[in-house]
Design brief:
By secondary structure, this protein is an alpha+beta fold. Helix content is about 35%, strand content about 30%. The protein contains four helices and eight strands, in the order ββββαβαββαβα. β7, α3 and β8 form a beta-alpha-beta unit.
């Protein structure tokens, strides 16, 4: 979508900013993919998020990781308007995280990142927690250590 920047341009010179006259005008187009990537990176940075996306998209993400590529927008959809954006996120949470608190932290991170980096007003962030990841017992050298790790999880 198209976004008109009404703020004057500023140039940083030796730690100081100064207004720079802009010759003519122009338009800035910010794609839904760009907004989804910013939101995805912000969501992944929240502790308690295991992965983003549904089952099929996580499988495709695992394949991308294996070949050295990454899709930062996996599991994230954005609808971009002229001045506003709405974001939908599908995720898997880590076991032990308070799910409502996790959703609130993700919303705060996405609101902040998108408004700061993209410059659009976020009107909503919808979060679907599809699954909870439960890590298996840690592999260790002795049966006593494995038993202690299993008991700690329970």
């Amino acid at each position: 979508m198209e976004y008109q920047n009404s703020q004057p341009a500023a140039a940083a010179v030796a730690g100081m900013s100064a207004e720079v006259p802009m010759p003519g005008g122009g338009r800035t187009v910010i794609s839904e993919t760009a907004v989804a990537k910013v939101a995805g990176i912000a969501a992944r940075a929240v502790p308690g998020v295991y992965s983003l996306g549904s089952g099929p998209s996580r499988a495709l993400g695992a394949f991308r990781d294996a070949v050295g590529s990454a899709d930062h927008a996996a599991g994230v959809r954005a609808e971009v308007g002229d001045t506003q954006v709405a974001v939908d996120i599908d995720l898997v949470a880590l076991y032990g995280a308070s799910l409502h608190a996790l959703a609130d932290q993700i919303r705060a991170a996405v609101y902040s990142a998108v408004e700061k980096l993209v410059g659009l007003q976020v009107i909503e962030v919808n979060i679907d927690i599809n699954d909870v990841y439960v890590p298996g017992p840690a592999k260790s050298g002795s049966p006593a250590e494995a038993r202690a790790a299993t008991e700690a999880i329970q």
